[in-house]
Each structure stands twice: as C-alpha cells, then as structure tokens.
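Lab manual, section 2.4: Encoding a predicted structure.

Procedure: take the sequence of the chain (490 residues), apply the prediction step described in section 2.3, and record the output as structure tokens. A sample record is shown.
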Amino acid sequence: MPPNLRPLETFIRKTTRKHRIPGLAFLLTQNGRRLVAKGYGYRDVAARLPVTPRTVFGIASVTKSFTALGILRLQEEGRLRVTDPVVRHLPEFGTPDPRSTRRIQLHHFLTHSSGLPPLPSIYFSSARSLARDPVNDPRAARKVGIDPDHPPIDTYEQMLEYLRSTRYQLLGPPGRYFSYSNEAFGLLGAVIERVSGRHFEQFLEEEILGPAGMRSTTFDTGIMLRSPEVTTLYSPPLPPRKRGWGVSQDWWEDTCLRGAGALRTNLEDLERYLEIFRTGGRVGATRIVSSASLRAMMHPHVPVSPGVFYGYGLAVQPGFPGGPLVSHSGGLKGVASLIAVLPKRGITSAVLANLGQAPSGLAVQAGINLLASRPLTQPLAEVPPRPPRPRTFGEYAGYYCSGEGIWFTVRPIRTGLRLDFIGIEFTERNVRMTPNGHDEFIWGRRGRLGYVRFERDGKGRIWAAFVGWRLVRRRAARELPLARHHRIVW
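Recorded output:
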C-alpha cells in the first residue's frame, strides 16, 4: 500500500513559506519507484517561473561524492590505491610539516582527516567570479581576515604552491582529526587528471555522468545556461535584519577546487545518480562502479560526531533505524542541497534549493522519516543524551577563528554556553548551547540540531572547537588584529 504523502506535501509547503525559500525541488523514491519528484516555488521569482524536476541548480559539496567515485573507479582499474601517499601522484604537494606531508594518503583527503586546517582557498580560487558578483561585499571578507585582494588561484599548480608557502599549522598528524577540507577534494581532482591523463571534468563525464544518463549535469556554466530551465541564485540578506534577497545570476566559478563543489544538475539526473548507492553500483543495467567500491565509499572510516562518520565523499550513520543512512549536503551562494540514501530500505531522497543557507534539508528529513515511520520533524542525526560532568563553563570562553572565515566567540551562561558567529557568508547571534557529556554541547535552531565539541591539548587546556564540521582554533585577543591584517599563522 503506498504511503500517505499528504502530510509530507503540507510540511514541505509550510517549511518553504516559513523560511522564505524562493524555490526548491524535492525527490523521494522507494525501491526505484518515484513517490515524489516535484518543484515548489519559483526558479525566478520576478518572472514567476516555477521550479520543476528539470530545473538546474547547483549542488555545491554534494560534488564531493562524485569525486570520490572517480578515485574509486581508478582504484578498480589498478591505477592507484587509496592508501597511496598524495605525493606519489602530486609530488609538488607540501605543507609546513614535511614529515606529516609524506604520510598524508589519498584516504586522508577522501575522509577530511589530512590535518589541513580550514583555509581561505575557496575565496581565492573563486576570486574572478567574486569580483564580478554584485552580491559580494569585500568588507565582509576583511572583517574575518580574508584578503579580498589576494591574487586569484586559477590552477592546481597554484593551489599546490599556496599550500606549500602559506603560514599555517596542521591540526595534527594524518588521521588524528576530522576537519572538512575543500582543498583536499579539489586536489583529488588533480590526482584524477594526473592518473587518468584526462581533464577532471572529462573523466567524470565519460566514466560516471554519461554512463549514468545524467544529460543535464555539468561543470560548465556555458553549457548549463543553455539548459531550458536554470534557477536564479538567491542569497540571504546581509546584515540579516534587512528584508529581501540578494539576487544574482553570477555563479561562483573556479578551476582548481571543482572536485569540492562545482557540479550543477537537476532532480531527474540526481534520481539516476542515487540509484548507484541504492543498487550497489548500477543505474539500470549499466554498472558504474563495483559493489566493493561502494562498500568502501559507504564505510564509516572517520568519526565526525556522535553516531555520524565520514566515508569517502559521504556522511555515514551506521546505527540509523533501518540503516545505515548515507548522505551529503551542499551549501554555497544560491545553493542549499542534500542527498540521502537508506540502501537496505531502498529509499533515496534529494532536495535542491536556490537560497543559500536555507534549511532545505528538512524536506529530505521529513521524507525519510515518513517512510521509516518516524515523526516528520525528528532529526536524522540525533545526539544521544549524556549526563553532563561538573565543570566551570568559563574554561571554554574565548575567541575561535579559522582562515576559512569562521569566527565566533564563546561566553559562559548559567545553563551552558552562548556562541556568537560572524562570518563571510554567515552571521548568527546568541546561539545557546547546553552541555551533553564531556566537553560536548548541543543546540537547536530553525528545526535543526547542532553539535559542538571542544578539544584539549596534552596539558588539559582547550585549544580548539569542532563547529560546522570544522576544527577551529582558539585565539588570544591580541591575535585578532593580526588575523584581520592577514599576518596570522592559521
């Protein structure tokens, strides 16, 4: 008996209105059968053009799963191994720690565990399109220590030179910490080029996109804009108290971090892509990758937060009811995307939205919950309650800054901690966190659950906070002016 989809439809419409999302496309399938493939709202608000399953959106970091598939395809052919040191394929790769550099493997790049700290590379690799973007405000970058006048990074060679010459410290030895790294996945694109002898984009088109029948999926903005339906990009107002959206058709472009987040696609193509994970490597009768590669990709290699791990280009929740659940989100200017697959239940879901930072993933959450007989609003990734240990909240207080433009202050309050964020794309005040176990805190906002973990050094002192999948170092007040003048060691 087919499920009653009416509560889900009502929930998505209410969520879209509540969070003022101009338009989104939503997919839900079970055992290869479409339950929902529908657009909500507008791809162009001013022209009243509706979203449909054929509307092309950006997917941002969902691209990382495609890049990981590319690496695993090359491993199947015997042309590399994920345990290879990165320098075997990119001999120019370097960091401020030569000993650790030699130990960093492709596996560490694939799992965000190389030790690279959050760096501003994505803004430098997108510098040319940012300069053309009317929504971009260089003052926001300067406020959080990102130099808007930094020379563009256009090539893999320039990115490798940047990582060799920039002043930063590795977070730890390879494999020690998970911290999200766009640079790592960008350079996996360079590895694919060196090993395959083809351009990264060409390799993915010939080995994954074409065989999967994804005809509307591309890295090329020129090709994308010739599609019959392409969304307009909307950005939340900055500062947040302003009304209305920032509207722009200037897509952020780069040439050396494409493996981290540059694909554009539509719901119909994503439906085909997600079949790879539901079926163990096939789309219809066509095998894209081996089942062994899929098992490696969906293995919980590195812990991220309670119950959540990272595989290769995918988040993995091994303990999900009816699981494991694999997923990945993406966010960029005018992009808020999420894919999710529950292979043992035959469930796939995806959402594409045209408003940056929109909580569009609530639609996927509701769809999976409906089919798993859970409340629609129950978070997919829940932090189990743990008794808080007695502590002095003041020991966590201070300034935390990263080179990627994530800055926040932590202040003790009676019930826990208060976080105030300021960033190049994100600003939020008065985020209240409650303790949940040792050095861990949780918060809830806009229907989402957040997790923060503090890290201690060998002497028991707090040195970093894990927030938004990044490990962000604690900073002394005297260091903040250095950061704003681009003279700090990240």
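Check your result against the sample. The CA atoms of residues 19 and 358 lie 7 Å apart.
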